[in-house]
Design brief:
The strands form three sheets. Strands 1, 2, 3, 4, 5, 6 and 7 form a seven-stranded mixed sheet that branches. The chain has 508 residues and is α/β, with parallel strands linked by helices. 31% of the residues are buried. The protein has three domains: 197 residues, Alpha-Beta Complex (Lambda Exonuclease, Chain A), CATH 3.90.320; 67 residues, no CATH class; 217 residues, Nucleotidyltransferase, domain 5.
Length: 508
């Protein structure tokens, strides 16, 4: 068989390592792949932002601008820059053996040898090891393969990651922001495997008509969630929306795969003698027999712990890859908004919205407002309260003047989700989930469309993206819409708790 030009890129190579069927689909049947949603697009944007920032570590460099599929032009420009003696090239482009690679940072040392820097928006800290970034080493290994094949002397290869040990001061120190993890030895060890891997890819891609019959399994989400998941799992294998994979965690030795290989995917078909934990059995029984669990005694005990006025509370936060403010590390969340519904014993309901507009550090503003809006020692209600408590504890650490007040709130949180997580209120429709957006339409059917009818912001990821857009916006109408959408979403999160609690009271 004649050797075909497989036309691979770095991303296609790593896709093929995860699953050759996924590679085939990307090349020949891309229409079945799920397009990136707004959250995934935000991840890509973050990657670009981090990549640009890392380039500042290697000043006076030149970038090879992306020209779409005109790779020949990019390769030609790379060679031109090298001939001109440019020591730092960003997105340097090379092709060898049917493989196209773009090197994030290609650095030439004084002795004429080169270094490869593969930049990722993931994090590194002092407790991590090389094993934690194995999947990135494959990215670097194929780059080395191409460059070595072209005759370049590569002295070292690095994975460049965000250093979460670094805490930003008043000014950002990019030399502390990044960690360069040397993976030269690991990359060299992989070189011997690459020719056989490429040959396997060639064999798979040689048949342009028949897709590989690769079964589903743990590899579908390892190391990345594959965008062929919907096609392979739902369309081809007809895995139910609520299946054995929801009951058991998917991994190499999971019980879910044991059942799947026996032809069992539906929850109701799990054999009676299959070994289960108590909570797994409960999940199955509720689904199988369509019986709801409503533990009135546990619900009453929960409600009896509450004292009025109840302060239903919810933060919205942002976690930028590059720390924005002093005292922050990479991906550390900071609050920019909260909603507070104050529920009084007589049924009176008061709403206080707070949103700090971009352009300033919102943390101290938020801390101060909380101490003004909520008396010390108040009964605090949240859904998944550990999130709110974590944010408050950080604010207390940053601003000692408000620490006593804030910690008195921190110590008085009651988590509404615990009733549902502990299966004291559990229905088949919940499908084992206990998130707010799952629970609300079940407990309060009149709120079924509440989130779907919101404008622009329908979940926390949307809130993050819209706040970032708000920061960049200049059109007054656009700013107003962004602001209104953020306020409406956060308000609904706390109103939902009020509604759920109201319905629970009716039960007892």
């Amino acid at each position: 068989m004649a050797q075909i030009n497989i036309g691979l890129s770095k991303s296609l190579y790593t896709r093929g390592l995860q699953c050759e069927k996924s590679l085939w689909l990307k090349k020949y049947k891309p229409a079945v792949l799920t397009p990136p949603d707004e959250q995934l697009k935000a991840v890509f944007e973050t990657g670009n932002l981090v990549g640009d920032k890392a380039c500042e570590l290697f000043p006076e460099g030149k970038e090879v601008p992306y020209e779409g599929k005109n790779h020949a032009k990019n390769i030609e420009l790379t060679q031109k820059l090298l001939s001109e003696g440019v020591k730092n090239i960003y997105e340097a482009t090379f092709e060898y053996d049917g493989i196209l690679v773009l090197i994030d940072i290609f650095h030439q040392k004084e002795d004429g040898s080169f270094e490869i820097y593969e930049v990722k928006s993931s994090t590194w800290h002092s407790n991590k090891s090389i094993e934690d970034i194995n999947h990135y080493i494959h990215d670097a290994s194929i780059q080395y393969y191409v460059l070595n094949g072209l005759g370049y002397n590569i002295s070292d290869t690095y994975i460049t990651l965000l250093n979460t040990d670094y805490v930003r001061g008043p000014k950002l120190d990019i030399w502390q922001l990044f960690s360069h993890i040397k993976v030269s030895e690991e990359v060299l060890e992989l070189q011997g495997r690459i020719p056989s891997i490429l040959e396997s890819f060639r064999e798979t891609l040689a048949d342009t008509e028949n897709e590989p019959n690769t079964d589903i399994g743990w590899h579908c989400n390892n190391p990345y969630e594959c965008n062929a998941h919907e096609y392979c799992w739902k369309t081809q294998r007809e895995i139910p929306d609520y299946s054995v994979f929801n009951i058991f965690q998917l991994n190499k030795n999971a019980k879910s795969m044991q059942l799947y290989r026996k032809g069992i995917t539906a929850v109701e078909d799990i054999p009676e003698d299959f070994k289960l934990t108590e909570i797994q059995q409960l999940n199955i029984d509720v689904w199988k027999y369509k019986k709801s669990i409503i533990n009135k005694e546990a619900i009453k005990e929960f409600i009896d712990t509450l004292s009025y006025p109840i302060h239903h509370f919810d933060f919205e936060t942002l976690n930028p890859a590059i720390p924005k403010f002093s005292g922050m590390s990479s991906y550390e969340k900071f609050p920019f908004q909260y909603s507070l519904h104050i529920e009084h014993k007589d049924g009176k309901l008061q709403h206080i919205p707070r949103l700090v507009m971009p352009g300033q550090d919102p943390r101290e503003v938020i801390a101060k407002r909380m101490t003004e809006d909520i008396p010390q020692g108040s009964c605090m209600m949240a859904y998944n309260s550990s999130f709110e408590m974590g944010v408050i504890k950080k604010l207390a650490t940053l601003y000692p003047a408000y620490a006593k007040h804030l910690m008195s709130l921190h110590d008085n949180f009651i988590d509404l989700q615990t009733l549902f997580k502990n299966r004291n209120y559990f229905t088949p429709e919940m499908q084992g989930k206990s998130g707010l957006k799952t629970v609300l339409p079940i407990v309060a059917p009149d709120m079924e469309k509440a989130y779907s009818e919101l404008d622009m912001v329908k979940h926390g990821g949307d809130a993050m993206n819209i706040y970032k857009k708000l920061e960049e916006a200049s059109d007054l109408e656009e700013i107003s819409r962004y602001k209104s959408s953020l306020l409406a979403y956060c308000e609904l999160d706390t109103l939902a708790m009020v509604k759920i609690l109201g319905e629970l009271r009716k039960i007892i």
